[in-house]
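Dear Dr. H.,

I hope your travels went smoothly. While you were away I took the liberty of generating a structure for the chain from your last submission, since the lab meeting agenda had it listed for discussion. I wanted you to have the full record in hand beforehand rather than looking at slides cold. The sequence, exactly as received, is reproduced here:
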Amino acid sequence: MTAEKLQGYCRATPFQPFKVHLANGRQIEIQHPDYTFVTASGRYFVHFRDDDSHEMVDILLINSVETFPPAGRAHAEPTTGQRP
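The corresponding predicted structure, in token form, is as follows:
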């Protein structure tokens, strides 16, 4: 995964929620573009949670990105991190 590809998911219009799948098996759901940003160096992304806590993740640890429709709609097929 590259910073540019991740930013593409965050800046998509209209925004589509997505999950980031990490090398250790964890998944991070990104429900809104304002909750996530890529650092200036492009090495990390920071994800804020509803309770104002946050985590910083090394972009190199992202295995794949899975898009899904907003709540209330059927689940989309996983992607390999490539934008259509």
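Two observations you may find useful: The helical segments are 3-11. The longest strand covers residues 62-67.

With kind regards,
E. W.
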